[in-house]
Specification:
It is an enzyme of class 1 (oxidoreductase). Keywords: Branched-chain amino acid catabolism, NAD, Oxidoreductase. The chain is an alpha/beta fold and about 290 residues long. It has two domains: about 160 residues, 3-Layer(aba) Sandwich (Rossmann fold); about 120 residues, Orthogonal Bundle (N-(1-d-carboxylethyl)-l-norvaline Dehydrogenase, domain 2). Helices cover about 50% and strands about 15% of the residues. The strands form two sheets. Strands 3-2-1-4-5-6 form a six-stranded parallel beta sheet, sandwiched between helices. The structure holds nicotinamide-adenine-dinucleotide. Nicotinamide-adenine-dinucleotide binds next to helix 4, helix 7 and helix 12.
Length: about 290
């Protein structure tokens, strides 16, 4: 079992750290919010009063932070972890951030002789709790192989996408496609309902036809079609509109950087941004159907 420092114990990091504890790892945790640290302590974690203190003796340093600026703040600068870490722990950043920042921090780690992978996740809070996340990793093959045993205790699908930053790129490509599938599915269902169709009947027809897709099959956005998904529970998340807007912003930045045409992703981003601005940021992303009613 490994010694792991875990920094960032929010909606995702909390349950991920809990799964490492359940698997028998020695986990030392830190978050700016002391209540979150306390919750993990009650589950058996050691606690620290700073990110650096949490890393003492660690073989793995994991971060699960909101955005790129938080990751830079934790790792870079004179008092950042990279300048102060002892030993040679493997650094695993699972936050969803822009690939440029991921590459910048990985390169700074490499200058200090440290291995680092970007390892953003897909699956959301339910998968974080169940230990069934998908990890999309960027970094060297050697660093990915080193990370695998720890990642396997938090997820069921581990992918090596390519060099540093590739995990982040894979993540935003997937989420941009998801946004297009969800908005398209919502649009088709609403068109059918507006023209007198029952959404369940239409869903069954499309599931057996060429319109079948993940949003329709697993996460139907029309209330009452599937009992267990957010649309049938007042669109309680799930995966919040705010997070989809964030991921689509990262996708648009990447597209600018590479001069890629992303007309569908761009349209989806505009729809989600307008939906957020109407005050629906904390609803599940399938609530985009409401914007099309
Ligand atoms: P969150 O806001 O719930 O948690 C982030 C935590 O980081 C907070 O507890 C915050 O206090 C802590 N933090 C911030 N700066 C810190 C610092 N300097 N030192 C220590 N702790 C610090 O966010 P979340 O929902 O857990 O998401 C984390 C990341 O995972 C984000 O990048 C998000 O985009 C991504 N993600 C989230 C989901 C989801 O469904 N929530 C799904 C996939 C990916």
């Amino acid at each position: 079992m490994a010694k792991v420092a875990f920094i960032g114990l929010g909606n995702m990091g909390g349950p991920m750290a809990a799964n490492l504890l359940k698997a028998g790892h020695e986990v030392t945790v830190f978050d700016l919010v002391s209540e979150l640290v306390q919750e993990l302590a009650e589950q058996g974690a050691k606690t620290a009063d700073s990110a650096l203190a949490a890393t003492a003796g660690a073989e793995f340093v994991m971060t699960m932070l909101p955005a790129g600026r938080h990751v830079e703040m934790v790792y870079l600068g004179d008092s950042g972890l990279l300048a102060c870490l002892e030993g040679s722990p493997l650094i695993i950043d699972s936050s969803t951030i822009d690939a440029q920042t991921a590459k910048k921090v990985a390169s700074a780690a490499s200058e200090q002789g440290l291995d680092m992978i970007d390892a953003p996740v897909s699956g959301g809070v339910a998968a974080a709790k169940a230990g069934t996340l998908s990890f999309m990793c960027g970094g060297t093959e050697k660093a990915f192989n080193r990370a695998k045993p720890v990642l396997a205790d938090m997820g069921k699908n581990l992918f090596h996408a390519g060099p540093a930053g590739a995990g982040q790129t894979a993540k935003i490509c997937n989420n941009m496609l998801l946004s297009v599938l969800m908005t398209g599915t919502a649009e088709a269902l609403q068109l059918g309902v507006d023209n007198g169709l029952d959404p369940k009947v239409l869903s069954n027809i499309m599931l057996a036809s060429s319109g079948k897709n993940w949003a329709l099959e697993m996460y139907n956005p029309y209330p009452g079609v599937m009992d267990t998904v957010p649309s049938s529970h007042q669109y309680q998340p799930g995966f919040m509109v705010d997070l989809m807007v964030k991921d689509l912003g990262l996708a648009m930045s990447a597209a600018l950087e590479s001069s890629s045409a992303v007309p569908m992703g761009s349209a989806a981003r505009n729809l989600y941004m307008a939906h957020k601005k109407k005050g629906h940021g904390r609803l599940d992303f399938s609530s985009i159907l409401q914007a099309l009613k």
